[in-house]
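Our preliminary data section would be incomplete without showing what the modeling component actually yields. Below, a chain of 432 amino acids is followed by its predicted structure, encoded as tokens that our downstream tools consume directly.
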Amino acid sequence: MLELIKLDKTVKLDIRYARTDNFVGKAVYKEARAFLQRPAAEALVRANKALKKEGFGIVVFDGYRPWSITKLFWEVTPDDKRKYVANPKTGSKHNRGCAVDLSLYDLKTGKLAPMPSDFDEFTERASPDYRGASEEETRNRELLRKTMEAEGFTVNPNEWWHFDYKDWPSYAIYDISFDDAGSLDKKPKKPKIKEKKELKQFFDAAGLTGGFYLYDLNKNEYTVYDRERLDRPFIPASTSKILHSLIFLDSGVIRDENETLAWDGVRRSVEAWNQDQNLRSAVKVSAVWFFVEVSKRLGRERMQKYYDAVGYGNRRTDGFGEDYWNKGELRVTPREQIEFLVKFHRNRLPFSPQVIAIVKDILIDDKTDRYILRAKTGWSSAFTPQVGWWVGYVERGANTYFFATELDLKKDEDAPQRKEITRSILKYLKII
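Predicted structure:
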């Protein structure tokens, strides 16, 4: 995202949410700043340049808006006025950095140009099609609309000042500070990779081969055993159910994490699968039939769009209709597992923070007064050797540590070693 005034200093700011003269009656932003995703920001600058020929400039009331502020707006707005605010369940285009609230100012006087209503005035005058305005007000409103639409924006049907950029579905919903938003456009520093060969002892003790990968968020540093496997692709197995859970909730194909699907009566090898399941229980026991059934309800085309939007592994969904994540062509590397989890933890995936919060809660494996460990296992017996995973992260104090353990399993009885080896290493590294 780009800060608008750094791109064009002639764009004025009138960030009322950083003051008390707004519909909430209090400042909800700590700073008077405005950000947009780069394509939207550059389009706005072009619109501002075009308007100068008409004697006007753009004044911005709001750009990127953290999701938590959208949630606040929803909660304080009466039911009969909620058409003017976004539902936090689906998020706002403001949360994606692809919506801007703005008006015109007179280049000669510096004053706001007359418009049919004030910003955030929840009346019929706010409509972009309101016909009761003066000739000057209507002319200014239509000039703004025409200029913004020429640059790929669409006006909100309830608010003449609100414009959405055409590519908004391509961007994630954020709930981050303005300082963090300002860092999104910076190229991330390449993380350091430190190999600890002594971690081999934990694999040797179990009589297994594999790799362990830890990413320290604050240090931007990897601690690894078996560097070569860090970027080797493997079938993700049930670790992909983190992504699938997000997709199911975000798409609405299931109502919520507690919606129950009836067991089909087919007895399967894992006894815990042979009963009714909801998302929460299905994740805990890795109930394959539940995820196959809900995936089919969603359809491959929609599922593929989510894979592409997230950029998950090699994005292959061959074998859709069965558990393709266990025996198909889908592949993901340990590094990609961790990069996905970092985005998940930081709410930088194209899902609402509300959906992400639910899945984060489902993934809690261990919680103490010192740390919270969220994780998911994975196991595919369709390959020789079998593929075993345990991926997740530990939130401890002001830092977060992300891990991915990938094992070559020789037999079914080796499966518990996914967690046992990982926990032993996390204790050795004093993470837990």
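Residues 192-428 form a domain with the Beta-lactamase fold (CATH 3.40.710.10). The chain has 14 helices and 14 strands. Preliminary results of this kind motivate Aim 1 of the renewal.
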